[in-house]
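Researcher: Here's a chain I'd like modeled. Treat it as a single chain, no partners, no ligands.
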Amino acid sequence: MQSKYEPTRVVHESFICCVELYDALSVLDELKPGTRLELHNDKANFPPLETVAIYYGDVKVGYVILKNNFIKTMLYFGYGNLLETQICMVNNNAVRLDSRFRVTIKIADNRQTV
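Model: Modeled as a single isolated chain. Structure tokens:
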């Protein structure tokens, strides 16, 4: 049986930073692997870093530092619905909150099944 190549949908993976500065502590017990999060361009970003804010519902849980501005540009022009963000790892033994939650940002799969 021949395998069919399928590219990864993952466009970014990193830890959520600045968790202790926002309201993540109020929802800490709800943040588990698989939990869906939302990305937002935020006017309070840390220049000159490329960052986007991470929200769980209405709760800002921190930021993600990006490798380039592709994701920020997608959000700016209203294409955030093409991105899926979820927690992929939780390290409850992490000394710092900045290394407790790891997230993946993926391109949404909009293919039609045949």
